[in-house]
Amino acid sequence: MPQRTAIERAFLLDLESGQRLFFQNMPEELAESKAANWNDTEILGRSEPIKAYSSSTARAISLTLQFAASIDAGDKGTTGSLLDKLRFVRSLVYPVYTEITLAPSKVLLSIGQWFKIVGVVRDYTVTYQRPWTEEATEPTLATVAISIEEANVNPFGRVDILSAADLSARG
């Protein structure tokens, strides 16, 4: 099996449909955040409260990607392929309708071996950029900012994080 390039190992996978969106280039930056909520318990005669863990926010990842209609991207330079990629991203903020629930589409964000997260797309912003096609006035370049929140069936604890195990498998 041929060795994959770094860019071929960076993708967003819809875990419901199996559809995969490969990145055309690596993100300029990737931001990660999570916040803990600690409750204070005041004790008479103690100079400071005792902290007790209450809950936390979901781990959130934000990144910005660029997509272009270009021959180098393997799409024959057509805007149709670019628009298909944008429709895929757009679809990820809509629920999967079933008879009993309105479940979000879970995704796997994978960047090589070092970064994986299973979550839901919280929001996205697409900025369409020039050049535009002359005949159809469609964009040939788009910047997509995506925010993903971790959504695991079994939440991680501190020991899980410190063990550096492949946490994406627990989704």
Structure write-up:
With 171 residues, the protein is mainly beta. It is 11% helix and 44% strand. The chain contains two helices and eleven strands, in the order E-E-E-E-E-E-H-E-E-E-E-E-H. The protein has helices spanning 79-91, 158-163; strands at 10-14, 20-22, 30-33, 36-41, 50-56, 60-68, 95-97, 102-104, 106-111, 115-132, 139-150. A seven-stranded antiparallel sheet has the order 2-1-9-10-11-6-3. A hairpin with a 4-residue loop joins strand 7 (95-97) and strand 8 (102-104).
Describe this protein with a few key phrases.
171 residues, mainly beta, seven-stranded antiparallel beta sheet, two-stranded antiparallel ribbon, 2 helices, 11% helix
Secondary structure blueprint with pairings:
Blueprint: E1 10-14, E2 20-22, E3 30-33, E4 36-41, E5 50-56, E6 60-68, H1 79-91, E7 95-97, E8 102-104, E9 106-111, E10 115-132, E11 139-150, H2 158-163
Find the structural class using helix and strand composition: mainly beta
User: What is the general shape?
Assistant: elongated
- The radius of gyration is 20 Å
Largest sheet: 7 strands, antiparallel
Low-confidence segments, given as residue ranges, are 167-171
Order of helices and strands: EEEEEEHEEEEEH
Strand order of the largest sheet: 2-1-9-10-11-6-3
Got a strand count? Answer: 11
Q: What is the percentage of strand-forming residues?
A: 35-45%
Residue-averaged pLDDT: 83
* Annotation field: number of helices: 2
In helices, the fraction of residues equals: 10-25%
Distance between the termini: 28 Å
